[in-house]
Design brief:
single chain; alpha/beta; five-stranded mixed β-sheet; 7 helices; 5 strands; 44% helix; globular
Length: 140
């Protein structure tokens, strides 16, 4: 989770949305990424998508865990379900409940660590840039 949090802080420092992600297989980090919608003017470049792009193609994700500082949205959850990533560990879901039920309904184990560090970072961002946050989650 530390790597995902570091990625979120990198995104924030770049003027983006502070959400980070990392994909791990056993004890080996395969890759990481952060939300780059603002930085790269890319509508779908959420943290989980950036992470998976950075990992590259894999024939299987069956022994992987994806970490995210925030509960994944339906787009990212759909990708997690599509590639059968069995576990998602999130930093928090109070600021955004995301698609937990959807992932669990499709057999994904979801663990919410409810970390104050992740929650405080998102809450501060949402308070400072509500229009950018609403754009990110598709809320008019």
């Amino acid at each position: 989770m530390r790597l995902a949090i570091d990625e979120a802080r990198t995104g924030l420092a770049q003027g983006g949305i502070p959400i980070g992600s990392a994909l791990v297989e056993g004890n080996r980090v395969l890759g990481s990424g952060h939300n780059k919608r603002v930085q790269e003017n890319d509508a779908i470049l959420h943290a989980e998508m950036d992470c998976l792009r950075n990992v590259g193609r894999r024939s299987s994700y069956k022994n992987c865990t994806i970490y995210s500082t925030l509960m994944p949205c339906y787009m990212c959850a759909g990708t997690i379900v599509q590639f059968k990533i069995p576990r998602v560990i999130v930093g928090e879901s109070r600021t955004f409940p995301g698609a937990r039920a959807f992932m669990e309904e499709h057999g994904v184990q979801v663990i919410d660590l409810d970390l104050e560090e992740c929650r405080a970072m998102m809450q501060q961002f949402i308070e400072q840039k509500p229009e950018l946050w609403n754009e990110d989650i598709g809320d008019d």
